[in-house]
Amino acid sequence: MTNDEFFNFLDLKRFLNHSFFLNPLKENYTDYLFQLLDRAVDEWENGETELAVQLCDEFTGQVKDIYIGEFLKLAIQLKEIDVEEKLSAFENINPDIFKTKLELVLFHFFKACLYFVNYDIDEARKECEKVISLENSLYYAYYIKAQCYALRELHHLAIPAYITSLKGNYRVDEIKANLAYSYLRNKDNWKALRLHKKIVDKFPENYKVQYNTGLCYKRFKKYRKAIKYFDRALKIHQSTPSFYLTRGRILMKIKEHEKAQNDLLIAASNNVPLAEDLLKINELVISRNISSRKAENRVRDLLKRVVNRS
Fold first, then answer.
1. I need a labelling partner for 198 at 20 to 30 A (CA). Which of 162, 251, 269, 299 fits?
2. Are 229 and 210 in contact (CB under 8 A)?
3. To 10 degrees, the CA torsion angle through 154, 229, 193, 268?
4. Sign of the Cα pseudo-torsion (159, 164, 166, 170, in order)
5. What pLDDT, in 10s, does the model give residues 92-106?
6. CA–CA distance from 152 to each of 2, 121, 122, 294 (Å)?
7. 242 φψ region: left (φ > 0), alpha (ψ -120 to 50), beta (else)
8. Predicted TM-score (pTM) of this structure
9. CA dist 94 to 73, 99, 284, 289, Å?
10. Do residues 256 and 230 make contact, with C-beta atoms less than 8 angstroms apart?
């Protein structure tokens, strides 16, 4: 599930506003200084990024050796900065310079974000671990950690991290969708189906959620239900040939061979593995050279040979 349309943790506005980031500062700074940061987040929320950055700079200019304003400025500019350059700067910072726990937490948190954007997945996870060891109620760090595990296909480790991240009550449906996918990949089939059923209609334009819901129903041999969601996925996103193979195979199972033919042709023309073999078997049924039952037997034999070769 981890893709740009579904996991865009760079949009930190809602996370930062009225969150762990600002609340502890009320006791440490005067009303004026706190209001600078509070206003910066508000201006950022309203799309006034230049003014937000100015307010961060004003805060930084008023305090000595305090880095909160710089971290907020980094969050605001995260989409535009040169990530590798900023990472290089972060890697040269000695964490001992930070005078407050909050600054140290934010240092490791934004370092994790930068590593994740740069696809340094293992380094991002390590930074999340440091954040959690310092402040285990910063639940967004668990979310990034879970995504790192999911990208490594370590779904048994991603699952508990996703569950913990839900305690933050932030982007709940999105986290549940990713959790549902990890359940599916971990073969926790009942959990995957139950959770997909709860969230699928909340993401009507997300083809992966629709497709994965179809896969859940397929695992329980509810083939017509599965096709409903494969249809939705392909209506949204028609350029994934493997989706046609999956739907075509299910159409063969329910003996709708004419409909399966077009899907298998698309998959075969895009060199999807097994598509050409399935197409030939399906054509034999359409031409009445073999029955649907014999076709299923041939498919099973084909799949056994593939498994044995691997």
1. 251
2. yes
3. -40
4. negative
5. 889 888 888 888 988
6. 11, 8, 9, 39
7. alpha
8. 0.85
9. 20, 12, 69, 74
10. no
- The 10s digit of each residue's pLDDT in 118-161 is 899 999 999 999 999 998 988 889 999 999 999 999 999 999 99
Tokens of 220: 């329980």
Check if the beta carbon of residue 55 is closer than 8 Å to that of residue 43: yes
Cβ proximity of 76 and 86 under 8 Å: no
- Please tell me the distance from the alpha carbon of residue 45 to that of residue 159, in angstroms, as a whole number: 31
Return all residues near 171 (Cβ < 8 A) that are at least 6 apart: 14, 143
Q: Let me know: does 124 contact 144? Beta carbons within 8 Å.
A: yes
CA–CA separation, 300 and 295 (whole Å): 9
For residue 17, pLDDT beyond 80: no
8 A C-beta contact, residue 116 and residue 135: no
CA 254, CA 292: separation in Å to the nearest integer? Answer: 9
Report yes or no: 197 and 213 within 8 Å, Cβ to Cβ: yes
